[in-house]
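Q: What does the assembled structure look like for these inputs?
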Amino acid sequence: MVVYLIRRLIMTVVVLILLASLVASLVHFIPGNPITIVLGPRANPALVAQAEREMNLNRPIPVQIWLFLSNAVRGNFGSDFLNNAPVSQLIMAALPYTVTLAIAALLLVVLVGVPLSVYGARRPDSWADRASAAVSISLITMPPYVAGLLLLILFPVTLHILPAIGAGSFSDPLGYLEHLILPAIALAVGWIGYIARLLRASMLEVLNTSYVRTARSWGVKERIIFYKYVLKNAVIPTIAILGVGLGQLIGGAIFVEVIFARPGLGTLVYDAIQQRNYPVVQAGVLIIGVMFVFANLLADLSYRFVDPRVRVELGRLRR
Amino acid sequence: MSVAASSVDREAAVSPGRMQGVLSGLAALVRRPNGAFGLSVAVGMVVIAIFAPQIAPYNPDAQNIPAAFQGPTTAHLLGTDYLGRDLLSRLIYGTRIELSVALPAVAIAVLCGLVLGLAAGYFGGLIDSVLVVIMDTVQAFPAVILALALLFLLGPSLGNVRIVIAIAFVPNYARVSRASVYATKQNLYIESERALGASHRRVVLVHLLPNIIAPLLILIAMDTPSAIVTEAGLSFLGLGVQPPTPSWGVLLSDGFTNVYTSPWEIIFASLALMVATLGLTMLGEALRDVLDPRLAGSRGSERS
Amino acid sequence: MSGTVLSVKDLTVTYRVAGRNVAAVDGVSFEVQPGEILGIVGESGCGKSTLSAALLGLLPRNGAIANGEIGLRGEGLVGATAERMRELRGGQIAMVFQDPLTSLNPTFTIGSQLVDALRAHRPGRGGRAEMREKVIAALSSVGIPAARERVDSYPHELSGGQRQRVMIATALMLEPAVLVADEPTSSLDVTLEAQILHLLDRLRREHDTAIVLISHDLGVIAQSCDRVIVMYAGRQVESGDVGELFAQPRHPYTQALLAAAPSLSRRRDRLLSIEGRVPSLSALPGGCKFAPRCSYAEDVCHEREPGLHAVGSQLVRCHAYARDSGYRGTVTQLTSRAEALAGQSDRRTESSVEDK
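A:
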């Protein structure tokens, strides 16, 4: 197990380094003067000269990558173009809002998706199952921005309940929750449908296995078979998917934050793009990528912990 | 054992009687409810896109400010937007925009991915390792974020969105073709063919391609709605197709700006997006069932 | 020794396939006494697995018992509720499956699975610790070494033979009146096979368990069973005492089976096989199902399906043994072939007795 962990961690570090290098050097993959690309329509000679001095964009690429990486590791992402504020500060201010949003959405996915799929798997092909299938499938087709927009229309605009803007503050938990509900639902909706279908299919597959047949032949109650055996076996492949889901949730957060004007990482990057605030864009993209990698790593590790076959095998590798 | 058998079967299906194979495949597809629905959505979209000028009741750019923010009426079946433009016409032309972004993007991704994957799998060694590393890094980002970064640098436009989406999808196809190459490489009869002097080209055409076609088609069918959704999202953020070009994402963005005044633009654009996604995804699932039932997993609890 | 513990009368099991009902088991009848081992032998597709599933009420969703009765200690199983069947399974009638490698849940320890089995039949009786002890005792009684440590292992840490023994241990623990063993040794090598058969023998000696042993392996049947049923295309074609059947196989199919079995004690240039193929259940021939492949078939065989006729102590489904079936060939012809084969099978049964 230890050997595997170490190997996996090394791989992760390698990917992170490559990620950061890609972010650092991305501008050079595009034909043209990197400085004018970065500044975009705001370019004027004075700004260009300033950027040349401060941004190292004309130094050799490996040097740029090295500088970027060594600074990033220390948490230094430079200063933003607009107010010369340290970018890391901006990111740290925005991050908690995005993290709470992602976690809330994930919770919703689990709390709604699992019962939905259990219901479908216990009574397959019944009317209830078909109905929940229809619901799941229509949910799957809703990307976060569509869900967010429709929720916006339904609740704040038409029914005048639940706020449409902002995140509230941590000091007012109830208000914070109020501001969290709609964005979290919007983010979770697509994945709820997906998990419901996936878990249901996985459970039905398990119900057809030899070992469930064995348990039945021993006279074990169907309820125990379902909630103990089937659930555990079906959850294992689902955890792996959920890990990827967390990463995608992070990606979808940008839409939801923009729609509901939540001051998270997504809005930060979005605004920075509009304002051509390159250092913020760079850092934001990097942080989101890092979160994605860690989410995948977490999912991968938890998957291996839950599946005893893998656990013991890895233990044996050690001996 | 089964690999050899299936590749032989597919060879037989692809070379002589190829037309028959395709026709019978189509018949199987239509027999399934999701295949029938998916196919009609796909065909419908293509028809609407091609014949947009004939079908649309108004010019999508024709402004009529006094008639702005109307709901569905007899004059404007789906209502109007903030400039009085007919929503139905804009949606119809939007279909054109969606397909003109999604299809070429996927096509580019397929081409590049195939070539890269084939090269990596065939030549192996350093080329393969480098490719795998690059693909993993590209996939280490959520597609949207990668797209954002690239669009920031390239500048927002319809053409750039195509390129950006293609880049995000290339790893899928590189993976598939690389895996197919490895699977086929393992077949001993390729080795014996090569020993007999068969050229690389023959090996690729006769052995590799038939094995790749099925997973490739399925991936294409599943990636197209994904491309549409991604493009709409990027355009919604203002980073993709620019207004007044009526991409569905742009319609959503216009609707969002004016959401407190009239919800109709958002509602109808959302519906269009959802139907398109649903139909094309179902087509992909039906294709998967027809071409490779092994991937389908269990359906219901009936067992032979 | 009390009376019949399992009785099956005229059992017919159908599957719904592509809108039609196909009979996988047709009109099978037998009885099993406590402590008796009944063998069921036949090629794949003859219906033996369907029969075992029907006995336990574990048919898939598209399967159903179309006709007949199953009596377990006098209780009718055919119309029983799902809950009643569940209560009976394990404690009264249990099953050992063919594929030990997939028959245990890979994500739970064998100990916890066996405790679950135990708890299903003795709810509330004894705490976890007591049940755990019972499980450990059962495991060591089937020869699993270091049972106290092994009880917390996962199935994939055990070999195939050990996993099969775990399945039998569960049967021992639950003390069912009837055990259905569906090809219990098919995936094991000869030494393991002998051990498993020995365990089954212990079950019947120590607990008076009635055992239905299903196999395609004639050697296993000859070694272990008291009586045997030969199945073909869902029907029983011959049944009776096992020694008699091997000494004097009467039905042409049985004769062909025995002739085709490779034997060490006789040199042969090529392996005999039965010409033709097992018919598909959805496209069965009219008349006797074996007629297309039978070298003794006459017109009447293709026209009418024979009933079961008593011949000596055996039952045979063949027109040749029916007095008024219209079969014109002489019975002597068949019997002399049977006797010719008897010479071979005598030697075979002798050698398998030595192996014990």
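The interface with chain B takes residues 17, 60-62 of chain C (CB under 8 Å).
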